[in-house]
Amino acid sequence: MRYVKADNVLPEEIIKLIQNYIDGEYLYIPRKCENQKSWGEKNGTRKALRERNNQIFMKYMNGAKALDLANEYFLSEPSIRRIISREKKFVQTK
Question: What does pTM read for this prediction?
């Protein structure tokens, strides 16, 4: 999210109206429902985590131990086991 200067995008009468409610403060205007993006969609976080989780699962399937994967990826062992479980379900539904 980036800031946009109101003077550049809003008519003067709307700016004056908003100033009656909030003068000189920051104001967040949410997206319309139809324009909302899901978590991690815009910056690629979701894709990066999906790839990381797939790597963890593949290493596990090739014999890596959950504790070793936890140390390698700086995650807890229960988190690694949860990722492996989810990936197994994902593979089974394909």
Answer: 0.59
